[in-house]
Amino acid sequence: MPEPIDPRPHRKPRSRDVLVAFLCGAFVAMMLGMSFAAVPLYSWFCRTTGFGGTTQVAKALPTRELARTITVRFDSNVAEGLPWSFEPERRTIDVRLGQVVTIYYKVTNQSARVTVGQAGYNVGPPRVGIFFEKINCFCFTTQTMKPGESRDMAVVFYVDPKLAQDTEQNNVSTITLSYTFYPVHPPEEPMTVSGGPDKSGRI
Prior knowledge:
By secondary structure, this protein is an alpha+beta fold. 18% of the residues lie in helices and 34% in strands. It folds into two domains: 14-49; 56-183, Ctag/Cox11 (Pfam 04442).
């Protein structure tokens, strides 16, 4: 005996398709959001933890100064392609924890053309980056130098007294602050069309 035929039409699983499409779209949106957020999140992580020798940006002056001293060493580098000389005014300085210090780096454009550079930095050993507080610095600011121009650039900083409370830093006696200037290519100026009319309107 043949089986009875269901007279009702078969319904397409539209609800399931819509749900799958929604989940796929949400996943793609989430991945895109994570990719855009990766850089600021990584930057925040480095600033918060001092990861990789990232220094801190001081929000206030230190409230105390300790007797313990740290030798701060200043390092300077210029990446290939940037015709600059770049040197600190002094190579080392002994500072007390909590002491505010200002030092200068001298930069000179040794070429006969305008050049542009930007400095990156790090602190060594990397684990002390969280205790190195910068009040003022030329890093991450684009510097445009005229031919033969020289410039003194200040760095104002202090080493946080909290370093003395971290037993893992008891053997730290020297901190190295290292800067590297990298070339930055300025935007090309619009080309002048030759053969155009002059101010009088003649060609």
